[in-house]
Amino acid sequence: MKGITFEKMDGSALKVGIVVARWNSVLTYSLRDGAIQGLKDSGVLDDNIVVLEVPGSYEVVFGAKHLIETKKVDAVICLGVLVKGETMHFEYISDAVTQGIMDLNTTTGIPVIYGVLNCLTEQQAEARATGDNNHGYWWGKSAVEMALLA
User: Is 89 assigned a catalytic role?
Assistant: First the structure.
């Protein structure tokens, strides 16, 4: 099975932002909960987890920038779920969000975790956003590791 392992980390001094899209909220809220658990398991204190909801995945980039500029976070996790439909909308949004998150990483000096699922089917998204395979958990741990690196 694919996966990643993490050494024990002490994130108790970190402040981490989570930007979560409300579009596909059943799945994005599950990812949010997984990310929060990953942060807590890495020592991040409840009071140092800042959650901001935005309408959709396209808006997570602006939300992340807002948290960096106003909440002085040490890392941001961007959470969204995009599922391919019958039009090109999926490709445009996926590309824009990917580029926006990468730009924030290179211009702000703050780690911004790419927690946007880009799936071909709803079943693929559900398999990655729920249960024991909730990718949000690992994105939470990734945020701590990268914030400690910065």
Answer: yes
CA 61 to chain centre: 11
Residues above pLDDT 90, as percent of the chain: 92
- Cα gap 64→5, rounded to integer Å: 26
**Number of neighbouring beta carbons within 10 Å of residue 70:** 11
* Residues making up the binding site for (2S)-2-hydroxy-3-oxobutyl phosphate: 86-87, 128
In this predicted model, what pLDDT tens digit does every residue of 48-63 receive, in sequence order? 999 999 999 999 999 9
**Residue 25 CB: number of other CB atoms within 10 A?**
13
Of the residues 13, 70, 89, 131, which is catalytic?
89
Alpha carbon dihedral 79, 85, 87, 91, in 10-degree steps, equals 30
Annotated binding site for 5-amino-6-(D-ribitylamino)uracil: 23, 57-59, 81-83, 114
- Annotate 62-88 with DSSP letters as a single string: HHHHHHHHHT--SEEEEEEEEE--SST
All domains in the chain, ordered by first residue: 16-149 (3.40.50.960)
117, 125 Cβ separation under 8 angstroms = yes
